[in-house]
Protein backbone atom coordinates (compact mmCIF):
# COMPACT_ATOMS: atom_id res chain seq x y z
CA UNK A 1 0.00 0.00 0.00
CA UNK A 2 1.25 3.48 -0.86
CA UNK A 3 1.07 6.69 1.11
CA UNK A 4 -0.86 9.80 0.05
CA UNK A 5 2.09 11.02 -2.05
CA UNK A 6 2.05 7.67 -3.82
CA UNK A 7 -1.70 8.02 -4.43
CA UNK A 8 -1.13 11.44 -6.01
CA UNK A 9 1.62 10.00 -8.20
CA UNK A 10 -0.66 7.14 -9.28
CA UNK A 11 -3.39 9.59 -10.27
CA UNK A 12 -0.90 11.58 -12.37
CA UNK A 13 0.10 8.37 -14.12
CA UNK A 14 -3.57 7.77 -14.93
CA UNK A 15 -3.77 10.76 -17.24
CA UNK A 16 -0.57 10.13 -19.16
CA UNK A 17 -0.88 6.40 -19.71
CA UNK A 18 -1.80 4.91 -23.05
CA UNK A 19 -4.46 2.46 -21.90
CA UNK A 20 -7.74 3.02 -23.77
CA UNK A 21 -11.05 2.48 -22.01
CA UNK A 22 -14.62 2.00 -23.17
CA UNK A 23 -17.36 4.48 -22.26
CA UNK A 24 -19.88 1.79 -21.26
CA UNK A 25 -21.50 2.65 -17.93
CA UNK A 26 -19.65 5.96 -17.77
CA UNK A 27 -20.17 8.59 -15.13
CA UNK A 28 -19.45 12.20 -15.87
CA UNK A 29 -17.23 13.77 -13.25
CA UNK A 30 -19.71 15.30 -10.77
CA UNK A 31 -20.09 19.08 -10.68
CA UNK A 32 -21.97 18.95 -7.38
CA UNK A 33 -22.15 16.35 -4.61
CA UNK A 34 -24.50 13.55 -5.64
CA UNK A 35 -27.47 12.64 -3.48
CA UNK A 36 -26.68 9.75 -1.14
CA UNK A 37 -27.83 6.41 -2.50
CA UNK A 38 -30.05 4.11 -0.52
CA UNK A 39 -31.90 6.83 1.34
CA UNK A 40 -35.40 8.04 0.74
CA UNK A 41 -37.61 10.59 2.42
CA UNK A 42 -37.85 8.35 5.48
CA UNK A 43 -34.08 8.07 6.03
CA UNK A 44 -31.78 5.10 5.55
CA UNK A 45 -33.23 2.33 3.45
CA UNK A 46 -33.73 -1.08 5.00
CA UNK A 47 -33.46 -4.40 3.24
CA UNK A 48 -35.13 -7.12 5.26
CA UNK A 49 -33.50 -9.83 3.17
CA UNK A 50 -29.95 -8.67 3.85
CA UNK A 51 -27.74 -9.91 6.65
CA UNK A 52 -27.64 -8.04 9.96
CA UNK A 53 -25.60 -4.88 9.45
CA UNK A 54 -23.96 -2.45 11.86
CA UNK A 55 -25.92 0.80 11.92
CA UNK A 56 -23.02 2.83 10.52
CA UNK A 57 -22.32 0.73 7.42
CA UNK A 58 -23.24 2.94 4.45
CA UNK A 59 -24.60 0.28 2.14
CA UNK A 60 -26.90 1.07 -0.75
CA UNK A 61 -30.54 -0.01 -0.90
CA UNK A 62 -29.56 -3.46 -2.14
CA UNK A 63 -27.21 -3.96 0.81
CA UNK A 64 -24.10 -3.82 -1.37
CA UNK A 65 -20.70 -2.70 -0.15
CA UNK A 66 -19.86 -2.22 -3.82
CA UNK A 67 -22.56 0.43 -4.20
CA UNK A 68 -21.36 2.10 -1.00
CA UNK A 69 -17.82 2.27 -2.40
CA UNK A 70 -19.12 3.69 -5.69
CA UNK A 71 -20.98 6.34 -3.72
CA UNK A 72 -17.77 7.15 -1.82
CA UNK A 73 -15.92 7.62 -5.13
CA UNK A 74 -18.74 9.92 -6.32
CA UNK A 75 -18.59 11.94 -3.10
CA UNK A 76 -14.79 12.17 -3.13
CA UNK A 77 -14.71 13.45 -6.71
CA UNK A 78 -17.60 15.87 -6.05
CA UNK A 79 -15.95 17.25 -2.91
CA UNK A 80 -12.67 17.74 -4.76
CA UNK A 81 -14.40 19.54 -7.66
CA UNK A 82 -16.22 21.79 -5.18
CA UNK A 83 -13.02 22.54 -3.23
CA UNK A 84 -14.64 21.01 -0.13
CA UNK A 85 -11.68 19.87 1.97
CA UNK A 86 -13.81 18.47 4.79
CA UNK A 87 -16.03 16.55 2.37
CA UNK A 88 -13.00 15.03 0.67
CA UNK A 89 -11.11 14.38 3.93
CA UNK A 90 -13.87 12.18 5.31
CA UNK A 91 -13.19 9.83 2.38
CA UNK A 92 -9.38 9.61 2.76
CA UNK A 93 -7.72 7.25 5.26
CA UNK A 94 -5.32 8.92 7.70
CA UNK A 95 -1.79 7.64 7.11
CA UNK A 96 0.21 10.17 9.08
CA UNK A 97 2.58 9.81 12.01
CA UNK A 98 -0.03 9.40 14.78
CA UNK A 99 -0.03 5.62 15.35
CA UNK A 100 -3.33 5.80 17.26
CA UNK A 101 -5.09 7.26 14.18
CA UNK A 102 -3.24 5.48 11.36
CA UNK A 103 -5.63 3.21 9.39
CA UNK A 104 -8.39 3.98 11.94
CA UNK A 105 -9.29 7.58 11.13
CA UNK A 106 -9.67 9.99 8.24
CA UNK A 107 -7.86 13.25 7.60
CA UNK A 108 -8.89 16.42 9.46
CA UNK A 109 -8.82 19.65 7.47
CA UNK A 110 -8.61 21.59 10.74
CA UNK A 111 -4.94 20.54 10.93
CA UNK A 112 -2.88 22.46 8.37
CA UNK A 113 -0.64 19.56 7.30
CA UNK A 114 -3.60 17.23 6.87
CA UNK A 115 -5.52 19.91 4.96
CA UNK A 116 -2.54 20.34 2.62
CA UNK A 117 -2.39 16.58 1.96
CA UNK A 118 -6.10 16.39 1.13
CA UNK A 119 -6.06 19.47 -1.09
CA UNK A 120 -3.03 18.14 -3.00
CA UNK A 121 -4.82 14.83 -3.60
CA UNK A 122 -7.91 16.77 -4.77
CA UNK A 123 -5.78 18.88 -7.11
CA UNK A 124 -4.44 15.70 -8.72
CA UNK A 125 -7.92 14.19 -9.07
CA UNK A 126 -9.25 17.45 -10.51
CA UNK A 127 -6.36 17.60 -12.97
CA UNK A 128 -7.08 14.03 -14.06
CA UNK A 129 -10.71 14.98 -14.73
CA UNK A 130 -9.99 18.41 -16.26
CA UNK A 131 -12.20 19.57 -19.08
CA UNK A 132 -15.25 17.56 -18.09
CA UNK A 133 -13.71 14.12 -17.89
CA UNK A 134 -15.61 11.10 -16.67
CA UNK A 135 -14.95 7.80 -14.99
CA UNK A 136 -16.29 4.28 -15.19
CA UNK A 137 -16.33 1.53 -12.60
CA UNK A 138 -14.91 -1.89 -13.28
CA UNK A 139 -14.43 -5.01 -11.19
CA UNK A 140 -15.01 -4.99 -7.44
CA UNK A 141 -13.44 -7.26 -4.81
CA UNK A 142 -12.85 -7.48 -1.10
CA UNK A 143 -9.54 -8.37 0.52
CA UNK A 144 -8.88 -9.05 4.21
CA UNK A 145 -5.61 -7.53 5.42
CA UNK A 146 -4.15 -6.39 8.74
CA UNK A 147 -5.83 -2.96 8.45
CA UNK A 148 -9.26 -4.52 7.92
CA UNK A 149 -11.39 -5.43 4.92
CA UNK A 150 -10.23 -3.55 1.84
CA UNK A 151 -13.02 -2.91 -0.64
CA UNK A 152 -11.32 -2.44 -3.99
CA UNK A 153 -12.93 -1.10 -7.13
CA UNK A 154 -11.37 -0.49 -10.51
CA UNK A 155 -11.91 3.08 -11.70
CA UNK A 156 -11.08 4.16 -15.22
CA UNK A 157 -10.49 7.90 -15.46
CA UNK A 158 -11.29 9.22 -18.92
CA UNK A 159 -10.09 12.81 -19.33
CA UNK A 160 -11.85 15.06 -21.86
CA UNK A 161 -8.69 14.88 -23.94
CA UNK A 162 -5.77 12.52 -23.68
CA UNK A 163 -5.38 8.92 -22.65
CA UNK A 164 -7.33 6.91 -20.08
CA UNK A 165 -6.07 4.55 -17.40
CA UNK A 166 -7.62 2.12 -14.99
CA UNK A 167 -6.50 1.99 -11.38
CA UNK A 168 -7.64 0.10 -8.30
CA UNK A 169 -9.06 2.40 -5.61
CA UNK A 170 -8.97 0.62 -2.24
CA UNK A 171 -11.28 1.69 0.60
CA UNK A 172 -11.59 0.85 4.28
CA UNK A 173 -14.76 1.40 6.32
CA UNK A 174 -13.84 4.05 8.88
CA UNK A 175 -16.27 5.89 11.12
CA UNK A 176 -19.22 4.68 9.08
CA UNK A 177 -17.82 5.87 5.74
CA UNK A 178 -15.71 4.31 3.05
CA UNK A 179 -12.33 6.04 2.98
CA UNK A 180 -9.70 5.81 0.24
CA UNK A 181 -6.49 4.30 1.55
CA UNK A 182 -4.63 3.23 -1.58
CA UNK A 183 -4.52 3.61 -5.34
CA UNK A 184 -2.71 0.99 -7.40
Detailed description of the structure:
By secondary structure, the protein is α+β, with helices and mostly antiparallel strands. The chain has a single domain, classed as Nuclear Transport Factor 2, Chain: A, CATH 3.10.450.50. The protein has 4 helices and 7 strands. It has helices at 4-16, 65-82, 85-89, 112-128; strands at residues 27-28, 39-40, 43-44, 134-145, 148-158, 165-174, 177-183. A 5-stranded antiparallel beta sheet has the order 1-4-5-6-7. A hairpin with a 6-residue loop joins strand 5 and strand 6. Helix 1 (4-16) runs parallel beside helix 4. The longest helix has 18 residues, at 65-82. The protein starts with a helix and ends with a strand. The relative contact order is 0.22. Mean pLDDT is 74; it is low at 1-57.
**Looking at the structure, what is the overall shape?**
globular
| Mean pLDDT reading | 74
Order of helices and strands: HEEEHHHEEEE
| Amount of helix | 25-40%
How many helical stretches?
A: 4
Q: List the uncertain runs.
A: 1-57
With strands numbered from the N-terminus, the spatial order across the biggest sheet is 1-4-5-6-7
Helix-strand category: alpha+beta
What is the number of E strands? 7
Report how far the terminal alpha carbons are from each other.
8 Å
CATH fold-level assignment: Nuclear Transport Factor 2, Chain: A
Percentage of residues in DSSP E strands: 25-35%
Main β sheet profile = 5 strands, antiparallel
What is the CATH architecture term? Roll
Broad CATH class? Alpha Beta
Gyration radius, to the nearest Å? Answer: 16 Å
Any idea how many domains? 1
Amino acid sequence: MRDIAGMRAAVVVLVVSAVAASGCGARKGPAAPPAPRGEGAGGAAADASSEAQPQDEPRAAGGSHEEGVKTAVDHLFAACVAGDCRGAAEHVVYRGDDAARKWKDTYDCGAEEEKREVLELCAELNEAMAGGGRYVFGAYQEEEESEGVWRVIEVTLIPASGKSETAAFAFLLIGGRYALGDVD
